[in-house]
Specification:
This protein is mainly β and about 300 residues long. The protein has a single domain (about 40-125, about 145-240, about 250-295), classed as SET domain (Beta-clip-like, Beta Complex). The protein has helices at about 5-15, 160-175, and strands at about 25, 40, 45, 85-90, 90, 100, 125-130, 135-140, 150, 155-160, 180, 195, 200, 210, 215-220, 230-235, 245-250, 255, 265, 280, 290-295. Strands 3-10-12-11 form a 4-stranded mixed β-sheet. Strands 6-15-16-9 form a 4-stranded mixed β-sheet, with no helix packed on it. The chain is globular. Keywords: Chromatin regulator, Chromosome, Metal-binding, Methyltransferase, Nucleus, S-adenosyl-L-methionine, Transferase, Zinc.
């Protein structure tokens, strides 16, 4: 006989009901743990004190009245920022390290334009599941083809100064949900803004690390082109079977890619005592596991 959901799972599911469709379910067959304390589910980023809301005053829309396509690419102001159309039949085809410039509210191409993907939101049904060693994780409830947009990383957009303060507190706990908006400044410089998904976030809050991930993050611009304030979107790097856990590499900015898109890991930061800072045991189980996650 099927057992009824645990009270803590029901509380978690109620929290997830705030998500836009398709639905997000939750399963816990490990213990009685419920949702993270004080966590609030959101569908869009929250602008905090000191973070300017983006203006469309200098936004330019394309003139592709019949939709953006290879035929219009040469004259399309949106595609001009990229080497080619970012999507082919709805699937990403850009190399790692490139940004996506989607058509915006001023474009004449219409809502069905092939260059509108991330802005339409998640289309995959997902499930949050309790794991044996990694806390909560997320798995897909349907097959995901390579290049498919999965979810946007959402949270509070905070200043670099606020990120430094919060980062010290998170370091003491051995965790972090800070994701730098560093497309313009790169991994070696301080960026102006960061997304913090610790207290406010969507399902991506629960994505776990893997040394052999099936998701990769790309910077995305939609209704403004301020390079310091982009969105973060997860895309599938391979065909992902149903019920597979969704993961990305927490090293993030600490990994660069060669011209073929293969990862070239960079050694983590070492302090004066030759000890790795924020070294956490990795349980990803990948054949190429680095044994530790460097937060």
């Amino acid at each position: 006989m099927k057992q009824p959901p645990k009270p803590n799972v029901l509380a978690f599911q109620e929290l997830l009901d705030k998500a836009k469709v398709p639905k997000i379910s939750v399963v816990n067959e490990i213990d009685d743990m419920g949702p993270p304390a004080n966590f609030q589910f959101i569908n869009e980023n929250i602008y905090t004190k000191g973070v300017p809301k983006m203006s469309t005053d200098f936004l330019v829309g394309c003139e592709c009245t019949d939709g953006c396509s290879p035929k219009t690419a040469k004259n399309c102001t949106c595609i001009a920022n990229m080497d080619s159309l970012p999507y082919r039949r709805g699937k990403l085809q850009l190399q790692p390290g490139q940004a996506i410039y989607e058509c915006n509210s001023l474009c004449k191409c219409g809502p069905d334009c092939s260059n509108r993907v991330v802005q339409k939101g998640r289309t995959i049904e997902l499930q949050i599941v309790k794991t044996q060693h990694k806390g909560w994780g997320v798995r897909t409830m349907e097959p995901i083809p390579k290049g498919t947009f999965v979810e946007e990383y959402a949270g509070e957009i905070i200043t670099n100064e606020e990120a430094e303060k919060r980062g010290q507190a998170y370091d003491a706990c051995g965790l972090t949900y800070l994701f730098d908006l560093d497309f313009e400044c790169g991994a070696e410089s301080d960026c102006d803004f960061t997304i913090d998904a610790y207290r406010y976030g969507n399902v991506s809050h629960f994505f776990n690390h893997s040394c052999d991930p099936n998701l990769r993050v790309y910077p995305v611009f939609v209704d403004h082109w301020n390079l310091k304030m982009h969105r973060l979107a997860f895309f599938a790097t391979k065909d992902i079977p149903r019920f597979t856990e969704l993961t990305f590499d927490y090293a993030g900015a600490s990994v660069v890619y060669d011209e073929l898109g293969s990862p070239i890991p960079i050694l983590p930061h070492i302090d004066q005592r030759d000890k790795v800072i924020n070294k956490v045991k990795c349980y990803c189980g990948a054949a190429n596991c680095r044994d530790y996650v460097h937060l």
